[in-house]
Amino acid sequence: MSELIHITAGGRPLCIEHAWVGVPDPQAPLLVFLHEGLGSLAMWRDFPERLCRAAGVRGLVYSRPGYGRSTPRPGAERWGLDFMHIQAEQVLPALLDALGVVGPYHLLGHSDGGSISLIHAARAAGRVASCTVMAPHILVEAFGLISIREARRAYLETDLRAKLARYHDDVDSAFWGWNDIWLAPDFPQWQITSELKNIVAPVLAIQGLDDQYGTMAQIDGIAAAHPDTRLLKLPACGHSPHKDQPEAVIDAVSRFLADPLAAPKRPNAHAA
């Protein structure tokens, strides 16, 4: 069951939807989940619970501002190129502080949430024990923008809006915040490759071979910049590995959390 907590981030009061899952022991290792660009706490469904139970850890799942039951994005507000940095450097630390989380903690982020996880791991190096990212973005590819333009068409012309409305109190806040910035004229210059060298925690980077939003350049780029990276490239898998290949992801992440340093650094497409 999710709860709401009031925080202040960047001088702005926010209400954040969150839930604790997995092992109920507050002394157990903590895994923080960061959702995708159109995601929310509810859109993870039972994956965080299943993973945390398998790994024997406690999980914190939350909806970022603009998503789920958290404070919506004001209608006139347009995100800038720093929107992921704001989440990584202001919102997530404020939430963790409000919940009494000191660290070390583990991160698991999907898509935009993966990028935010990498930025946070680079900026809060002493607090992050490990970082798992699924289909993260470290740079903008024309390939991925095609799919984002298609998402805009689907939102306007199909039942996508109605489907997303099940998971967001203000569905337009969620969709247009994400879609407008990704399709902004200056967004192709966005990148976080320069951040990666500052990460000290081990990283597990997972991506589907059929990802419609990015090529393997995304996770290969992480490995090139951060030597302590393990790669998992999954066949028959699109942009959401935890939905398309949940058992493979749960197994890989569980073993990574159990001993991040012992996992092989270059697993093949079927193992981690």
Automatic annotation (TrEMBL):
Q: Which GO terms describe its molecular function?
A: hydrolase activity
| Keyword Ribosomal protein listed | no
Looking up Pfam families in the UniProt record yields: Abhydrolase_6
The answer to whether UniProt assigns keyword DNA-binding to this entry is no
Task: Identify the GO cellular component terms for this protein.
Answer: membrane
Q: Where is the AB hydrolase-1 domain?
A: 31-252
| Keywords (A to Z) from UniProt | Hydrolase
- What's this protein's name? Alpha/beta hydrolase
The organism of origin for this protein: Ideonella livida
